[in-house]
Model the fold of this input.
Amino acid sequence: MKRVFLLLPLLVLMALGVLFFRGLSLDDTVPSALIAKPFPVFSLPSLEEPGTTLTEGILKGQVSLVNVWGSWCPTCYAEHPYLLELAEQGVVIFGMNYKDEGDKAIAWLNKLGDPYRTNFVDADGRLGIDLGVRGAPETFLVDADGVIRYKHEGEVNARVWNDIFEPILAQLNQEREGKK
Amino acid sequence: MRKQASQLVVLVMSLLFSVMVLAAIDTFTFTDQDTQDRFKVLTEELRCPKCDGQSIAGSNAPIANDLRSIVYQKLESGESDQQIVDFMVDRYGEFVLYRPKTTGKTQWLWYGPIAFGVIGVLVLGTIVLRSRSRDGYDEDLDEEHQSKLDVVRQMLDEKDSTGRAE
Done:
C-alpha cells in the first residue's frame, strides 16, 4: 500500500503537465462582461449621413449583429466577404465604424460592398470602451430587446457562425416561441 | 550688461514656456499631488485589456492610452478609486484587475499557494521528525519484515566484523 504513495508525486506531476499543456492551446479571448446586459446607450452620427444621429434604439425590434470594424483593420478585410454572405441570407448587421476616418470607411464600403443596414461612427472609441472592445473586429449578437447575448472577438467565418452563433440564435428563437 | 540680462531672461522664459507646452501634450496635468499619486497607483493596477501582462500605465497600445485618459478625466471630475475600478470591471470584466477581488473562484488564486505551502511544510516536517525518531527500527514494519530486517542487519554485522579481522 505504501508503494502507491511513492507514485503520488509522479501522478501529480503528470496531472500538472496535462493541465499546462491544455493551457497552451486555450483560447486567449476574454468573455465579455456585457453579456445579458443592454447595449450601452449611445448617440452617434451615421456614417452614411453624417448629419443624422443614431441611438441604441435602432437595435430594438429584431435580432441583429453589431460588427465593430475599421478600414485600418486587416482582419475586418478578411471577414468582410462572409459578412456580405450573411447579409444576403437576411441577417441584420449594424456596423460600428471604430476609430476610423469617414471618407476611408465610405470608400471601403463602395469598393468591397456594404453588408450593413447602417453604420454608426465611434471615431474616438468612447462607445468602444463602454462595450469593452479590445480591438477590431468584434461582433456582438444583440437580441430583439436590445440585450447583448454574445460577443465574438476576431474574425466571423463559416465555422464560427455554425459552431457559436447558430446555437445561440436557435436558443433565441426558442425563447421567442416560449413567449408566444 | 542690462541688455545681456534681459536677453537671458527672454531665453530662460522661452525655455520654460517650451517645457510647459510639451508637458501639456505629453502628460496629464493634475490639480494636486494626491490625484497624481492615485493616478499612478490606479493605472498600474489596471491591466491593459489588449496586452496580457502589461498594466495600462506600462502599455502604449491605443486602448491603454484611451483608458489612461479616462482614468485621468474621472479622477479630475472627483470620482473615487472604487468608482473607477468598477467602471472598468463593468466593461472589461475582472480581467482588468491585477489584484482580483477575493470572491468565489479567485479564492483559489489567493489562498491556493498558501495552502500548498502549508501542506509542503507539514509533509517535510513529518518526514524529518519521523526519520529522527526512528532509532534503527522502522515502527511501521510488521513483524515478518522486521525479523527479515534483523537477519539482514545481523549478516551485515558479521561480514563487517570478519572484514575487520582480515
Remarks:
- Residues 30-179 of chain A form a domain with the Glutaredoxin fold (CATH 3.40.30.10).
